[in-house]
């Protein structure tokens, strides 16, 4: 089974918002990435709606034929209400603070165990699969499993930085340890943040039980050069397991 690719289309909304109007059309982009081979669409609405707007999420839900993943901070009631209204296949809970440039840390699943347990139940009761964003630390994975989450998403910025510095083995080691712990505890595994055409294959090959990656910033940047259709296919190709002879 190959790892699924969910395309994060936040950056398409950033471009649209820079001029007002509806160019590029975010809903059309969601339709197209699925048509081009993506296994899902990810959005991360933030309270200031600087990229994906809450209403985009409603419109995208109407056209989704693959998997819809909504990421965000469940301490915002508006976010919780949106997720319960639109009922995506998956919600990914990310502990961002207000005005944060982008996500930069995972949950402390031990300190916030009771809070996460309660919130996860709210979404699970609505039939929505839950993933929580965590740093690559086996202790945090153990804490995550105790909350009842279905999956974790490993925050991969640190991996991407070390990989770019040529430290591939050091970069992947904590992620393999965290991923092994998740597998041992029976929780599903996603990953994302700063994954790109250079670092993705090594990550996926070292953690072949990885369920899904969500990729936005680098993929949309690559699409400026290669086009969206080619780019989705380039990323998909990196997720196909190497044949065993
Ligand atoms: C959780 C995560 O790593 C991504 O959702 C990333 O934060 C995208 O959000 P922005 O597009 O706002 O940077
Ligand atoms: N969950 C990670 C995501 O959706 C995209 O992150 P990035 O590729 O924009 O860094």
From TrEMBL:
EC number: 2.6.99.2
Active site residues of this protein: 44 (proton acceptor), 71 (proton acceptor), 193 (proton donor)
Catalytic function, reaction form: 3-amino-2-oxopropyl phosphate + 1-deoxy-D-xylulose 5-phosphate = pyridoxine 5'-phosphate + phosphate + 2 H2O + H(+)
Keywords, in A-Z order: Cytoplasm, Pyridoxine biosynthesis, Transferase
Transmembrane segments: none
Pathway membership: Cofactor biosynthesis; pyridoxine 5'-phosphate biosynthesis; pyridoxine 5'-phosphate from D-erythrose 4-phosphate: step 5/5
Places the protein is found: Cytoplasm
InterPro entries to which the protein is assigned, alphabetical: Aldolase_TIM, PyrdxlP_synth_PdxJ, Pyridoxine-5'_phos_synth
Positions of 3-amino-2-oxopropyl phosphate binding: 8, 19, 194, 216-217
Keyword check for Manganese: no
One Pfam family of this chain: PdxJ
Binding site for 1-deoxy-D-xylulose 5-phosphate: 46, 51, 102
Keyword presence, Repeat: no
Site (Transition state stabilizer): 153
Molecular function via GO: pyridoxine 5'-phosphate synthase activity
Domain of life: Bacteria
Subunit description: Homooctamer; tetramer of dimers.
Family affiliation: Belongs to the PNP synthase family.
Summary of the function given for this chain in its UniProt record: Catalyzes the complicated ring closure reaction between the two acyclic compounds 1-deoxy-D-xylulose-5-phosphate (DXP) and 3-amino-2-oxopropyl phosphate (1-amino-acetone-3-phosphate or AAP) to form pyridoxine 5'-phosphate (PNP) and inorganic phosphate.
Name of the protein: Pyridoxine 5'-phosphate synthase
Species of the source: Terrimonas rubra
GN (gene name): pdxJ
């Amino acid at each position: 089974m190959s790892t699924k690719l969910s395309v994060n289309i936040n950056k398409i909304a950033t471009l649209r918002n820079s001029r007002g109007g509806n160019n590029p059309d975010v809903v059309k982009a969601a339709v197209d990435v699925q048509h081009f081979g993506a296994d899902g669409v990810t959005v991360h609405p933030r309270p200031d709606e600087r990229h994906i707007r809450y209403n985009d999420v409603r419109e995208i839900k109407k056209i989704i034929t693959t998997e819809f993943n909504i990421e965000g901070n469940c301490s915002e009631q508006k976010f919780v209400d949106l997720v319960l209204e639109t009922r995506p296949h998956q919600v990914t809970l990310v502990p961002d603070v207000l005005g944060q440039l982008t996500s930069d840390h995972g949950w402390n699943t031990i300190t916030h165990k009771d809070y996460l347990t309660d919130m996860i139940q709210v979404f699970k009761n609505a039939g929505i699969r839950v993933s929580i964003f965590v740093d690559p630390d086996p202790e945090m994975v153990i804490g995550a499993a105790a909350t009842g989450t279905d999956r974790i998403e490993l925050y991969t910025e640190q991996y991407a930085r070390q990989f770019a510095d040529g430290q591939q083995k050091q970069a992947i080691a904590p992620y393999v340890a965290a991923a092994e712990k998740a597998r041992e505890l029976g929780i599903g595994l996603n990953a994302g943040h700063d994954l790109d055409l250079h670092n993705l294959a090594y990550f996926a090959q070292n953690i072949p039980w990885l369920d899904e990656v969500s990729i936005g910033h680098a993929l949309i940047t690559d699409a400026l050069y290669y086009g969206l259709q080619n780019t989705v296919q380039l990323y998909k190709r990196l997720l196909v397991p190497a044949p065993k002879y």
